[in-house]
Amino acid sequence: MTSSKKGDDSKGKRTDDSTAETPQPELEVVRQELERLKDLAARAQADLQNAKVRMDKEAQEMRTYAVESMLRRLLPTVDNFQRAFAHLPEDLSDHDWVKGLQAVELAFITELSDVGLQQIESLGQPVNAEQHEVLQAGPGEKDVITEVFEEGYLLHDKILRPAKVKVGDGT
Length: 171
What we know:
Blueprint: H1 2-5, H2 24-65, H3 68-86, H4 96-114, E1 117-119, E2 132-142, E3 145-150, E4 153-155, E5 158-161, E6 163-168
Parallel strand pairs: 2-6
Antiparallel strand pairs: 1-4, 3-6, 4-5
Helix pairs in contact: 3-4
């Protein structure tokens, strides 16, 4: 009887410790897969963060330049105000109606400035090919603006319209 119990000592229990553990090559495969998945998750998170930053930047740019088209359409109105006041007869300069119209123009220019419109300072400045369109040359210091035919404007730092100018030719 005792001889039949020699093989039955375990009664379904394994006494060999090496068979209870996962084989070493299989464990290494699982570890490599875990590292690959961690790397993949980190890359996906970085891509998501980059996309969020890019979308925020694009949204800010859209807000900044959303008014650009409307400002381009309003610039001729600004020019017309300036031309009208430049050619105002002397006897009307103190008239209350004209003063009221000048106040309207000033308020209009102030509102445009509040959304980022800036006039390019040109008269007496050296020519800047990006900001100035030279229409004529005449007497005066070489490459210095002597007359402005039409003002130029920036929207923040972007040129909406270059100034149309006359420059000195050095004579």
